[in-house]
Amino acid sequence: MLKAPSDAGLNKIKKAVMSLSVEKKMEVLTLLEEELFAARFKSLLTEFRESAKKHPITTEEISGEVEAVRQKRYEGTN
Length: 78
Description:
Blueprint: H1 7-18, H2 22-54, H3 59-77
């Protein structure tokens, strides 16, 4: 297993990235986005679930919101 870089090592990495061209920075960004997608998505789902527990909504409330949006859209097209 790879050892996590120390703060000094992380600072070297940051400095190296700062010296890259925009194109190379985009490559690094893409690499990080791909690497971290699953973790970020899982974190987002956790936030949604916690929010839903704190602020539950009934099926009737959801239906009311859907109907309100439909009505606004219908009125906007006429």
